[in-house]
Amino acid sequence: MQILRCVRPLVLLPAIVLSLLAAPALAQIPDLKLGRVPTLAPLVKEVTPAVVNISVEGKVRQDNPLYQDPLFREFFDVPKQVEKQISATGSGVIVDAQRGYVMTANHVVEHVSTAQIRTKDGRKFSARLVGRDPATDIAVLQIKDPTELKAIALGDSDALEVGDFVIAVGNPFGLGQTVTSGLVSALGRTGLGKQGYEDFIQTDAAINPGNSGGALINLRGELVGINTAIISPGGGNVGIGFAVPINMARRVMEQLVANGRVDRGRIGVTLLDLDSPADGRVQGARVADVTVGSPAERAGLRKGDIIVKANDMPVRSATQVRNLIGLTPVGQRVRLVFERDRALGNATVEVAPVTEERARARSSG
């Protein structure tokens, strides 16, 4: 994550007032006898106890610079790599108070040996790593002996729209819990080169180093994203931050809790975005190839089909379908609606293990 040095001040527009008026009681507008003053204080008080600070200690192996010197290698027993102790801080969100599960960003706990959780009220807990998934930058910790914790409700990130108000809560620069606000600037951002499964929420709510793993929350007080990255070419705030949608993070968490890892499968298709309107459509995913003997072929998909819905959700891009398939547990089924020769068809495809798909591909030549 690049350093973000300053925060752009929030301008309170009439639209914000209207949004707060329409929001639940958590985002009420008190009457201070000086006029009605917009405030998110009730909402913040409700949700921030679920956002925690994470301190991590770990070890990494690095190339030994002395090993690069041939004289040292010849006359001294110089190891090729050396072990280095590291520490890191970040943020996390309590998503299950009874079992003590905390969702965070993978890169916060990538080298974890020990982890300590600090709650808003100053209590400290030891935690263990349940599992992590570098491909989505999501990880899950479990607090040991959880007592009197408060979790946050999970929202529906698929219901987000550009222009929705959100707040970001985290631990920027190790300062302690900090709240910022902004808008959903864009949805479905991909191509950032950060990890394998990209479908980011873009927001102008200030996200800084240390915010990673923290909460992106809507005005209903629901968790809609896990903050993960920013773009900051000059080291200053350009108002571009990214969060992993909670619907994606939830599916990852379920597998991590159940198995300690994410087992990804395939259905045997190559997908491409529509580079030009096809049959009057500007959104969808074109099937560029179907593997012989694959679940997709058995379900009736063919090269040239345009997938327009996946599990009843309209398809915006090929990345969206790849993400859905990659996050669906092996053995479960994906419902697809496709267009072929200007007619719609349906296919229910079972997700198969990657090894099985590769074996079929090899046997089919």
UniProtKB/TrEMBL annotation:
Signal peptide interval: 1-27
Annotated coiled-coil segments of the chain: none
Record key words, sorted: Hydrolase, Protease, Serine protease, Signal
UniProt entry tagged with the keyword Disulfide bond: no
Domain spans labelled PDZ: 256-342
A Pfam family hit: PDZ_6
InterPro entries linked: PDZ (IPR001478), PDZ_6 (IPR041489), PDZ_sf (IPR036034), Peptidase_S1_PA (IPR009003), Peptidase_S1C (IPR001940)
Family: Belongs to the peptidase S1C family.
PANTHER family documented for this protein: SERINE PROTEASE FAMILY S1C HTRA-RELATED (PTHR22939), SERINE PROTEASE HTRA2, MITOCHONDRIAL (PTHR22939:SF129)
Protein's recorded name: Trypsin-like peptidase domain-containing protein
Species: Bradyrhizobium denitrificans
